[in-house]
Amino acid sequence: MKELTVIKIGGNIVDQPAALEEFLKAFSKYPAPKILIHGGGVMASELSAKMGIEVKMQNGRRVTDLDTLKLVTMVYAGWINKSIVAILQKLGCNAIGLSGADGDLVPATRRSPEPVDFGYVGDVNPVDINSSLLESLLGRGITPVFCAITHDRNGSLLNTNADTMASSLAIALSSDFYTRLIYCFEKEGVLYDQENPDSVVPLITRANYQTMKDNGAITGGMLPKLDNAFAAIESGVSEVCIKHASNLGNNKGTVLR
Questions:
Q1: C-alpha 84 chain-centroid distance
Q2: All domains of the chain, ordered by start, with CATH?
Q3: Which of 45, 69, 172, 191 could be joined to 126 by an S-S link, Cβ 3.0–4.6 Å?
């Protein structure tokens, strides 16, 4: 099977121009076909504070009311997405910036308000993803760059967790590709000790992940990242790795099996 790499870059890197450009240089050289999904929560939170829009989080995920939805759409699908595409074009990587609404690529269902009302937040079912259109773009040598804005097919945009977006895209394409999913962010991988960058967990299985959750070793935003990683593995994705953005081209980081 042909190989495909789905790479997600976190908002803490996106928010640092120099770090982002270094990552994109490595990404532009990474073998195609490939797909990039980006976050942007740091920039969205900073702009929210400037505009007096309260940032609300539950279990490491953003609560999205209507004002927040407008703001994150402007930040994610606008400035960040198109800036990344512009840099990739400069680097010789022919990219196209997309939201889930474009081409009906990633439809989503608004999350139930029970037990927690997350507002305009969308959950993605990989079987609904428009894989044929994505494969057509990839086959033409075009690299899709996704923000994590989706739509409900009823005229409403939805905010979707970018890690979920990445794992859903990887799952959707895993029947036709040997699919590798890489989460790149500002840490060396999953850490035993959050204060020690050298305490990387080299390998995590489903069993020891549950143990690490139970004893509080893994909390906050890392929980949805790992939940999505294991969901991807169990649904056909061949490999998952979590690593520092500067290590895209090497074998460092945490491998999940």
A1: 14
A2: 3-256 (3.40.1160.10)
A3: 172
Rg of the chain in Å (alpha carbons): 17
Contact 69, 157 (CB under 8 A): yes
| Structure tokens, 54 | 């309260």
Nearest to 60 by CA among 183, 161, 143: 161
Residues 91 and 28: beta-carbon distance below 8 Å: yes
List, in sequence order, the alpha helices (H) in the chain: 11-14, 17-29, 41-51, 66-72, 81-90, 131-139, 162-173, 206-214, 222-234
Burial 124-135 (b: 16+ CB within 10 A, else e): bebebbbbeebe
CA distance to 126, 190, 195, 254, per residue, from 199 (Å): 34, 8, 9, 11
| pLDDT tens per residue, range 154-200 | 999 999 989 899 999 999 999 999 999 999 988 899 988 878 888 89
Per the CB < 8 A criterion, the answer to whether 61 and 170 are in contact is: no
Tokens of 7: 């790479």
Cβ-contact 156, 213 below 8 angstroms: no
Q: How far is it, in rounded angstroms, from Cα 223 to Cα 242?
A: 13
C-alpha–C-alpha distance, residues 164 and 6, integer Å: 12
Higher pLDDT, residue 193 or 204: 204
Q: What is the pLDDT of residues 69-111, one digit of tens each?
A: 999 999 999 999 999 999 999 999 999 999 999 999 999 999 9
Single out the residue of 184, 166, 178 nearest to residue 231, CA to CA. 166
pTM: 0.92
Q: How many residues does the chain have?
A: 257
